[in-house]
Each structure stands twice: as structure tokens, then as C-alpha cells.
């Protein structure tokens, strides 16, 4: 089985979707630990309920990003992960950290990347008047929200949508595609080859599997 460590900062609804999928019989992946950068991350309780090791490393206790990351890396690597999954982890990671997990580090972002990198994506989509929105799963590279795309899901923007309504519509898709991508990786079907993503040996298009 593929040993997965999940990093969170908040509610952990994506973590929940991943845990639910990994608990199915014959799942190729096992979540061995959940780590948060804040003690009050709601997802820690979800991990507790699921009987999964859960820890927190409070980033605000460290003066430098590097010292925080060194502590985090130590905790992560204690669990010998084959795959590190960012699920609503809201700290920017240094190039050193990203390089250490190159090819085994995934992120989910609530936009159709490369559009709307960064924060407040739903509000920005509404303000732009876009008719389409969505989410993206990608291998993490040193560029913020810039790594090679693996999968995307699209949702319509409806008249009268608020950021909250739109976020909920996108989250339902996040909960569908993230477990799928983790399965692909755990089954050995998904590889990062330089800047290219291979699924079953085939190069995926730039937007990934849509
Ligand atoms: C999700 O929408 C995820 O895509 C986003 O935070 C939310 C976490 O929700 N991630 C980012 O914005 C990363 N920059 P969750 O805690 O319920 O999974």
C-alpha cells in the first residue's frame, strides 16, 4: 500500500473525502498521518474520529519559514510517506521543501489553473463575471500554484451565486477528483516526468484529465 500523509489548515472536507475513499476495501492508499499547521484545524478532529494519527506544528511558534518547515519535515518523514497530499494547507512552501518531496507532492486548488492562483478564487471569479469555474489537482512545483496539472473539474457559475454557494459547488467536485488522483498515484499509474505528467505511460494534456 501507498503510505499517504495529509497536510491541512482548516475544516478538512477534502481530507474527509480522502479518508472515506481510503477506507474502502482494496484501497491502494493508506492515510498514515494528518498534520496541521494550527491546533484548531477542524480536520484534526476528523482524523481523530477516523483513528488516524494526527499532529500539529504551529507555524506561528517559528520566526522563520525554514525552521517551521524543518520541524514539519521531521514530523512528516517520521511516517515515511510515499505521497504527501496538501488538502487546504494554507502555508506557502519553500523551494527546498518542495524539492524534497518532488514527484510525490500533490495539491488541490479551487480554480481552473492557471487562472486564479492564490486566495479568494470564488470571489474573484464572480467579480470577473466568468461563466465557468472549477478546481485543479497538480503536482507541486516551486512556483506557487504553478505545478503540472493532473486533473480538473468544471462547474457553471449561476446567476445569483455568492462566493459561499460557488465554493460549495466547487468543493463537491474537489471531493470527487482528489480521491481519484490519489488512487492513480497509489496504483503506480501516475508519474511526474520533468514538467510532464504521465498517466498509464501517456503524457496528459496541459490541463490534465478534465
Ligand atoms: C479547498 O477549497 C481547497 O481547494 C482550498 O482550500 C479549501 C480547503 O477546504 N485550498 C487552497 O485554497 C490552497 N491554496 P477543506 O479544508 O474543507 O478541504
- Give helix and strand order, one letter per element, not per position: EHEHEHEHEHEEHEEE
* Terminal CA distance: 27 Å
Helix content: 25-40%
Record the strand order, biggest sheet. Answer: 3-2-1-4-5-6-7
Number of helices: 6
Look at the structure and give the mean pLDDT: 97
Beta-strand share of residues: 25-35%
Largest sheet, in brief, is: 7 strands, mixed
Determine Rg (CA atoms, Å).
16 Å
Write the layout of secondary structure elements.
Blueprint: E1 2-8, H1 13-22, E2 29-36, H2 42-50, E3 54-56, H3 65-77, E4 83-86, H4 95-100, E5 105-109, H5 121-128, E6 132-139, E7 149-156, H6 163-186, E8 190-193, E9 196-199, E10 202-203
Parallel strand pairs: 1-2, 1-4, 2-3, 4-5
Antiparallel strand pairs: 5-6, 6-7, 8-9, 9-10
The protein binds glycinamide ribonucleotide.
Glycinamide ribonucleotide is lined by residues 8, 10-14, 43, 87-88, 90, 108-110, 171, 174.
Please supply descriptive tags for the structure shown above.
single chain, 210 residues, alpha/beta, seven-stranded mixed sheet, 25% strand, globular, binds glycinamide ribonucleotide, GART_AS, EC 2.1.2.2, Formyl_transf_N_sf, purine biosynthesis, Formyl_transf_N
What does this structure look like?
The active site is at residue 109. Its EC number is 2.1.2.2. Pfam families: Formyl_trans_N (PF00551). Residues 3-182 form the Formyl transferase N-terminal domain. There is one protein chain. The protein has 210 residues and is an alpha/beta fold. Helix content is 33%, strand content 25%. The strands form two sheets. Strands 3-2-1-4-5-6-7 form a seven-stranded mixed beta sheet, sandwiched between helices. The protein has a three-stranded antiparallel beta sheet with strand order 8-9-10. The two termini are 27 Å apart. The mean pLDDT is 97. The structure holds glycinamide ribonucleotide (GAR). The site of glycinamide ribonucleotide has 15 residues, from helix 1, strand 5 and helix 6.
Amino acid at each position: 500500500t501507498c503510505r499517504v500523509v495529509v497536510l491541512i489548515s482548516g475544516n478538512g472536507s477534502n481530507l474527509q473525502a480522502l479518508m472515506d475513499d481510503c477506507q474502502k476495501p482494496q484501497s491502494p492508499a493508506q492515510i498514515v498521518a494528518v498534520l496541521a499547521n494550527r491546533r484548531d484545524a477542524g480536520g484534526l478532529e476528523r482524523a481523530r474520529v477516523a483513528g488516524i494519527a494526527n499532529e500539529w506544528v504551529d507555524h506561528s511558534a517559528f520566526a522563520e519559514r525554514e525552521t517551521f518547515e524543518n520541524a514539519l519535515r521531521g514530523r512528516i518523514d517520521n511516517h515515511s510517506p510515499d505521497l504527501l497530499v496538501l488538502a487546504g494547507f494554507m502555508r506557502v512552501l519553500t523551494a527546498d521543501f518542495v524539492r524534497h518531496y518532488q514527484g510525490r507532492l500533490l495539491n488541490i486548488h479551487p480554480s481552473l489553473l492557471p487562472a486564479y492562483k492564490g486566495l479568494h478564487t470564488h470571489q474573484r471569479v464572480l467579480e470577473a463575471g466568468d461563466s465557468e469555474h472549477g478546481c485543479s489537482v497538480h503536482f507541486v512545483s516551486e512556483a506557487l500554484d504553478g505545478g503540472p496539472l493532473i486533473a480538473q473539474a468544471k462547474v457553471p457559475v449561476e446567476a445569483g451565486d455568492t462566493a459561499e454557494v460557488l465554493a460549495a459547488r466547487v468543493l463537491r467536485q474537489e471531493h470527487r477528483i482528489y480521491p481519484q488522483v490519489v488512487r492513480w498515484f497509489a496504483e503506480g499509474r501516475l508519474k511526474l516526468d520533468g514538467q510532464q505528467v504521465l498517466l498509464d505511460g501517456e503524457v496528459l494534456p496541459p490541463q490534465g484529465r478534465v
